[in-house]
Amino acid sequence: MNIIFEHLTKLIQMSGLANITPGNGVMILVSLVLVYLAVFKGFEPLLLLPIGFGAFLANLPLSNVVGHDGLLTQIYNVGVNTEVLPTMMFMVIGALTDFGPLLANPITFLLGAASQFGVFAALLIAVSLGFSLPEAGAIGIIGGADGPTAIFTAGKLAPHLLGPIAVAAYTYMSLVPLIQPPIMRMMTTKKERATEMKQLRQVSHRERIVFPIAISIITALLLPQAIALIGTMMLGNIIRESGVTERLSKTLQNEMCNIVTILLGASVGSTMEAANFLSLSTLKIVALGLVAFSFSTFGGMLLGKLFYVLSGGKINPLIGSAGVSAVPMAARVTQVEGQRENKHNFLLMHAMGPNVAGVLGTAMAAGVLISLLK
Description:
The protein is an all-alpha fold.
């Protein structure tokens, strides 16, 4: 009987029930909330679902998908720590991005730049809260609402904070429809939101080919630290725009995009283990991420209102909110808010200009921070 009792005791001690912690329980609930938002609310499901379920698996007691030999940990070490997956994602983004609206209205470059305000505002606040300058720079980049850039920057400046920074960046990207509209309505009048904009001009094939080449050269000369991101993005874009590599373009836009999204999301989610994630530092990072994102929206909207005044009421200030890098969700939110006030208002293509400019702006801001703080 004693032998049977000892074996039963050992079996119980090796079970998940005996090894689950309160922290695991909290993080399992958090992960299921993320899954709920993705499945039932449609909040950026392609990102939030793999992140949420990756976090769920990581917090199951005695889970063997994380740890030294765990599958998700191996993917994280090979793909995220080496920055391979973030740069591959930028190649995918380039193949998915139409820079036509930006080229048709180059002034929207400035809206993408203004939307980096939150990056540097959060950096200053983070330093005041006790983070080092490199850590603060990595946290601030969350304000660009660009997951791959946040991962890339954190890997360079603060690898030990990469997990919470990546999760915060992807989570706020998915929550754009909740975070931005109140700020947009607070900063604009009904008349401003109802402003209709004239149709954009057609952009030539030559312009579309010259653009990625020119941007790569300018980046390499001025911000070489950002060329890994912007250069791969431009590679994906010229494959898209060349007209002679349709197979490669489709592969990037479909198979490559899906594979990288699954691997990046699930492996980043696996870093949300209770032992690492439930800390005061993580809570500060999550809070600072919201501050950064809100300030970035504010910065873009502020310049958008200035453009409205200078143009004599011809530029809808709502497009300034699309200057963050959450492509194309931020542009869609602009479209929805514009049509809420005027059903004949079609702002999507106008908003795509600052939206893709924001991707470039965030990558350049990351290059500046890496150059100065590394």
